[in-house]
Amino acid sequence: MKRNGFRSEKGVALILALIMLLILTFIGISAISTTTFETNISGNERVGTVAFYASEAVFQLGLNQLPDTKPIPSSTKIGEDSHGWSGTAKDKGSPKDLVNFGLHSKAGFDSSWAFKRFQINATGESFLATKEIEAQVSYGPFSAGTQYN
Question: Alpha helices, DSSP H only, in the chain?
Answer without folding.
Answer: 12-65
